[in-house]
Amino acid sequence: KQEVTQIPAALSVPEGENLVLNCSFTDSAIYNLQWFRQDPGKGLTSLLLIQSSQREQTSGRLNASLDKSSGRSTLYIAASQPGDSATYLCATPVLPGGKLIFGQGTELSVKP
Amino acid sequence: AAGVIQSPRHLIKEKRETATLKCYPIPRHDTVYWYQQGPGQDPQFLISFYEKMQSDKGSIPDRFSAQQFSDYHSELNMSSLELGDSALYFCASSWGTETSTDTQYFGPGTRLTVL
Question: Which of residues 17-46 of B touch A (CB under 8 A)?
Answer without folding.
Answer: 31, 33, 35, 41-45
